Amino acid sequence: MDSTCRRALNSIKLKNASIGYYDDQLAKADEIRVHVLSQIDQACRDNWLKIYYQPLIDIQNMKLAECEALSRWIDPRYGFLSPDKFIPALEANREVYKVDCHVLEGYGQDAEFLREKGKEIFPISFNISRTDLEACNIYQKIEDTVARYGLSRDQVHIEITESALNDSSQAMVEAVQHFHDLGYQVWMDDFGSGYSSLGQGIRDQNRL
Question: What does pTM read for this prediction?
Answer without folding.
Answer: 0.77
